[in-house]
Structure to design on (1163 residues):
């Protein structure tokens, strides 16, 4: 523990990353120690701590050097030297946006969503969730990552079980056991990788040493990769390992669903990039055909099953499966556009799906139901609510000018180079996405409202304030995603270079960019094409 | 002057933003006037930019991509730069984009103005204009985009606005369904657009039109054909060609100004624009397919239009049919004729839709032509302007429709593979067009009164009749932009030439041209004459002139709906059930299995030593037996 505290003080400058982890931890402790007579202080105080984390994350993004492809703000403190385990954290252009997303989403939902009971433990668990997620995203040590990965599980389990809806116990247990099974594999794989794959100088859990050294034999590496991948694919989740998600999402309290979608699922795709592609480049190339297939299956299956859901929240959950499938395709398509698009899509999915869960939660607060056929004509009664829902829906559908399009488009155009037919199939997902969301929208918002629907109140000011950051982000990232892309691109390029060095894979060139030749006028054309 | 191009889309976008924040506060009619002013300003800056473009020397070969000097790109910012991919938020000023922008903003402004009167009293008045401005912005991004992705932004934007506007009266289930259907059907086309973009980028490494035009000759024929057919899919969705036309007749659920602007004059021509814009890529094989799709659609929809009773449904099928003409022109290589018809069609079809809106308005929301008739007395301006539109679309010289349709028929005639067949289909369509439009005109404005006595038809206010008059003028004389009489009068032809990889040369002799034009005019007049006898003079029984097969448009739409609602939904439902029972069932099955094993094993840990001992003994015996058997075999 002493060394952990020392870690917070390490580094020449202000230890930003450790602060990002420990501010929420301190917040959780403070909230937990609040006198029982003042539970009303828990959320404001917790929000404050979470928001300090958010501010620090923005400072991190501000100070981040987009041109540097490597890890920045690194700080290392030896933790268990005998095993080569250290508290080693750092960010690159990929993890940066995950950290920012996490640190902003938690304070917003803490401030904006009322847990209705037991605010003290609720707030504390939310803060721990923030700390654990940020920790997992910045961990550069396999053991540290595993610890953080597991830390996240517990508060999520307790949030679902404690503040969820009717079927919460079943859903929470399923969530816990399912991801625990993945974690067991992850632990074995981490130990195997460190024990078998460390350099001669001694055992280490240091990610960069292991990844850059590539000491494992081909078959061992592939086995370890498979174990890692399964753990992450459960988390993503991909079809057919996804059925814990609709239950967990539907039964979780609104804030839990938002954080689950925005942050926790990203641990899966982030893990695939960082501890799959980076740690096992050769095995990634070897397994890529299976993984892109799994991604595309998720896109289609998630969309089809989403269309037939009767519970609006379940529908959003299944749409998550489809969106996350796109990301898996992007990661294992191995081009700068596809990987960059994948990272952008991770952020976008957090924004769009996070906001959709907020919106569904707000509807439930009013109507005590999420059943699509028990709702109708909401747009007449709550036009502002319907307007925000429409915008977020369009962002989720991938309409250009909004955030969802940027990620989807980059993933698809990048994947098309290396995985043409997979991409063509995945692109049909854009038709299906329009189908299931617009159909649901029509049934809930259009048509003649019944008496109960007419009573549905429109958004309150506080709710609008909670949704505003999501709406602004959806538009801003749709119109001007360049700052994100600029930071992601070097990291993605570096990852691909690493892949090229350690596998047979070669990143293709997108055509030879055509030089616009003035002399090549309307007169000269090849006749056979026309 | 061309530098001001960004203001063209910026003004409607600003109008949208103001209406979003302050629309309900502005209320009626200020919200409407604000949107109209934004649109008019956009038209003004289109004129200014157009002037600037004309100021550029067309003979100058210094322009990008061999397009001559009339080519100006205004780059606003880098949109999605990553790796080798460069997607700029950039606008393109060239003859094609300006031709499109001119009529889009021109006709668009008139329809905005018309809506000020038409939407009077609607509780969502300001929201209507909010959508209208957003639509105009999207449409302008579509035609001004410098690359495929910016065009796609506009493409999806107009689709979204179309969805919002069709389902504008969202409490009507039919309107809500029609809106969704339009968006989803369009998305099938968008899939083609996206894959075409991917394919072009992968092979040519660029998405900009300059780069694509320059690189197109290097494309392998197979790739170019694939791209062409994907673009055709995209265009067929947006421009309502067979078999993706099904959303357009339903789209008439939207307010009539929307039908005029979105579903007749502007948005539905986007597919035509896309194919013309990417004309260097289109291969012979693809062109033939485009021509066949166009001709088939033209005839199919004209037949359906013959038997419709809803005043707007006639015009909707007519639009599908006229769009088919445009595709036929493209397929015949006559890109200028296609664009020419896009422009004249915007005039006369916009006019006809607005006229029908005026009728609907005057009759208190009546749309069934069987309850109209004799309206020319009560609505003189609407009647006269509608008649101009009718004669223009019927191809009566010298109105605009005659010139553009004539050029298309000539191009079809000269199509090298199946020219005469295409021409014949086009000619039959022309005859049918003249017939069904005459029928409509007579049913609405002539004959006896068929509306109830408590209905009091009245002429529409000036905000509605002024656009009618102006559009009637344009529909009448619009042909002057491309008259085939003297070479120098082919203004549009010469103006658009730099955009085309293969400018079309009409090879027919003058006598052939005149002969074809003569036959076309006779066909048109024949259609009108037949309609006069049947619907005006009642000398022909009309009983069998409206067969149910045509009224139901050959049951294409209802068959698709039945399939989607039946087997389609069943398949989806089966997948969802499988997800619950099989996939999740397996998960719970594993859980149950683990528990069962656990419970089965639990008695073993009884704590009694004798149980463990006997277990060891039994195990030892089994082991010995097994080893022995293995030794034997």
């Amino acid at each position: 523990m002493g060394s952990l505290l020392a870690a917070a003080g390490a580094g020449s400058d202000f230890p930003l990353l450790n602060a990002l982890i420990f501010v929420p931890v301190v917040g959780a402790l403070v909230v937990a120690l609040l006198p029982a007579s003042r539970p009303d202080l828990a959320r404001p105080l917790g929000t404050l701590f979470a928001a300090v984390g958010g501010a620090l994350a923005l400072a991190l993004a501000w100070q981040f050097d987009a041109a540097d492809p490597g890890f920045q703000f690194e700080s290392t403190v030896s933790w268990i030297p005998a095993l080569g385990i250290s508290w080693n954290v750092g960010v690159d252009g990929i993890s940066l946006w995950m950290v920012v997303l996490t640190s902003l989403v938690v304070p917003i939902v803490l401030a904006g969503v009322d847990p209705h009971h037991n605010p003290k433990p609720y707030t504390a668990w939310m803060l721990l969730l923030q700390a654990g997620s940020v920790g997992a995203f910045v961990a550069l040590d396999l053991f540290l990552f595993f610890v953080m990965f597991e830390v996240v599980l517990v508060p999520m389990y307790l949030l679902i079980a404690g503040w969820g809806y009717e079927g919460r116990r079943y859903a929470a247990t399923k969530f816990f056991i399912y991801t625990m099974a993945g974690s067991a594999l992850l632990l074995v794989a981490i130990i195997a990788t460190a024990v078998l794959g460390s350099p001669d100088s001694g055992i280490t859990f240091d990610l960069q040493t292991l990844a850059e050294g590539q000491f494992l034999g081909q078959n061992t590496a592939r086995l370890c990769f498979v174990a890692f991948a399964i753990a992450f694919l459960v988390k993503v989740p991909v079809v057919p390992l996804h059925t814990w998600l609709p239950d967990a999402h539907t039964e979780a309290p609104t804030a839990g669903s938002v954080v689950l979608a925005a942050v926790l699922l990203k641990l899966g795709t982030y893990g695939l990039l960082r501890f799959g592609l980076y740690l096992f480049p050769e095995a990634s190339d070897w397994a890529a055909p299976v993984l892109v297939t799994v991604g595309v299956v998720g896109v289609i299956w998630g969309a089809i099953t989403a269309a037939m859901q009767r519970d609006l929240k379940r529908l959003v959950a299944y749409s998550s499966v489809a969106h996350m499938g796109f990301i898996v395709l992007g990661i294992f398509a191995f081009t700068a556009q596809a990987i960059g698009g994948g990272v952008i899509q991770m952020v976008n999915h957090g924004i769009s799906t996070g906001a959709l869960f907020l919106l569904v939660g707000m509807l439930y607060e009013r109507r005590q139901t999420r059943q699509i056929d028990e709702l109708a004509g909401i747009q007449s009664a709550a036009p502002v609510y319907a307007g925000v829902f429409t915008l977020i829906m369009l962002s989720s559908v991938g309409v250009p000018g909004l955030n969802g399009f940027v990620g989807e488009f980059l993933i698809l155009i990048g994947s098309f180079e290396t995985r043409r037919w997979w991409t063509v199939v995945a692109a049909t997902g854009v038709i299906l996405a329009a189908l299931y969301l617009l159909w649901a929208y029509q049934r809930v918002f259009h048509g003649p409202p019944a008496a109960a629907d007419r009573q549905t109140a429109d958004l309150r000011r506080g709710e609008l304030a909670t949704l505003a950051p999501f709406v602004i982000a959806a538009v801003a990232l749709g119109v001007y995603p360049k700052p994100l892309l600029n930071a992601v691109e070097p990291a993605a390029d570096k990852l691909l270079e690493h892949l090229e060095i350690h596998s047979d894979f070669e990143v293709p060139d997108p055509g030879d960019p055509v030089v616009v030749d003035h002399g090549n006028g309307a007169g000269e054309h090849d006749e056979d094409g026309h | 002057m061309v530098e001001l191009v960004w203001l063209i889309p910026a003004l409607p976008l600003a109008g949208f933003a103001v209406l979003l924040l302050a629309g309900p506060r502005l209320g009626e009619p200020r919200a409407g006037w604000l949107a109209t002013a934004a649109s008019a300003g956009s038209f003004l800056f289109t004129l200014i930019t157009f002037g600037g473009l004309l100021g550029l020397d067309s003979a100058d070969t210094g322009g990008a991509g061999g397009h001559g000097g009339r080519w100006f790109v205004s780059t606003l910012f880098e949109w999605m730069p990553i790796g080798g991919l460069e997607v700029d938020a950039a606008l393109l000023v060239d003859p094609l984009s300006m031709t499109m922008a001119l009529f889009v903003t021109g006709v668009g402004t008139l329809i905005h103005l018309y809506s000020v009167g038409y939407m009077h009293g609607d509780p969502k008045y300001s929201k209507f204009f909010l959508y209208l401005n957003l639509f105009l912005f999207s449409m302008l991004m579509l035609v001004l985009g410098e690359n495929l992705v910016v065009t796609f932004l506009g493409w999806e934007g107009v689709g979204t606005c179309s969805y919002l506007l069709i389902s504008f009266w969202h409490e009507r289930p039919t309107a809500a369904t029609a809106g969704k259907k339009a968006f989803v059907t369009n998305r099938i086309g968008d899939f083609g657009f996206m894959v075409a973009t991917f394919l072009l980028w992968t092979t040519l490494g660029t998405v900009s039109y300059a780069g694509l035009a320059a690189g197109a000759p290097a494309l392998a024929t197979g790739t170019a054909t694939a791209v062409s057919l994907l673009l055709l899919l995209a265009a067929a969705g947006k421009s309502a060609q067979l078999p993706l036309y099904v959303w357009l007749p339903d789209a008439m659920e939207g307010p009539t100004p929307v039908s005029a602007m979105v579903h007749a004059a502007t948005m539905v021509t986007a597919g035509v624009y896309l194919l013309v814009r990417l004309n260097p890529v289109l291969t012979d094989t693809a062109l033939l397919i485009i021509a066949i799709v166009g001709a088939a659609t033209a005839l199919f929809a004209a037949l359906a239009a013959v038997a419709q009773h809803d005043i707007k449904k006639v015009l909707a099928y007519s639009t599908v049919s006229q769009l088919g003409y445009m595709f036929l022109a493209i397929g015949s290589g006559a890109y200028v004729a296609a664009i020419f018809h896009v422009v004249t069609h915007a005039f006369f079809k916009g006019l006809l839709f607005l006229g029908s809106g005026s009728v609907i308005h005057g009759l208190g929301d009546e749309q069934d032509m069987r309850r109209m008739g004799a309206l020319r007395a009560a609505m003189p301006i609407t009647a006269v302007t509608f008649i101009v539109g009718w004669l223009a679309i019927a191809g009566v010289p010298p109105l605009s429709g005659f010139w553009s349709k004539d050029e298309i028929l000539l191009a079809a005639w000269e199509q090298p593979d199946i020219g005469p067949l295409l021409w014949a289909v086009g000619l039959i369509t022309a005859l049918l067009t003249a017939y069904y439009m005459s029928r409509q005109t007579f049913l609405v404005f002539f004959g006896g009164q068929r509306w109830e006595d408590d209905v009091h038809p009245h002429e529409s206010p000036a905000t509605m009749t002024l656009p009618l008059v102006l559009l009637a003028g344009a529909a009448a004389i619009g042909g002057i932009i491309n008259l085939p009489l003297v070479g120098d009068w082919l203004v549009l032809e010469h103006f658009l030439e730099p955009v085309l990889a293969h400018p079309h040369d009409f090879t027919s002799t003058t006598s052939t041209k005149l002969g074809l034009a003569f036959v076309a005019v006779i066909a048109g007049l024949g259609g009108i004459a037949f309609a006069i006898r049947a619907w005006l003079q009642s000398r022909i029984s009309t009983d069998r002139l409206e067969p149910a097969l045509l009224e139901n448009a050959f049951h294409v739409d209802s068959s698709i709906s039945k399939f989607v609602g039946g087997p389609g939904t069943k398949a989806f439902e089966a997948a969802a059930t499988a997800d619950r029972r099989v996939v999740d069932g397996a998960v719970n099955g594993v859980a149950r299995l683990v528990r069962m094993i656990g419970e089965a094993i639990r008695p073993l840990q009884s704590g009694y030593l004798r149980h463990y001992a006997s277990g060891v003994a039994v195990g030892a015996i089994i082991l010995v037996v097994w080893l022995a058997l293995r030794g034997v075999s």
Remarks:
- Chain B touches chain A through 81 residues (CB under 8 Å).
- The mean pLDDT of chain B is 92.
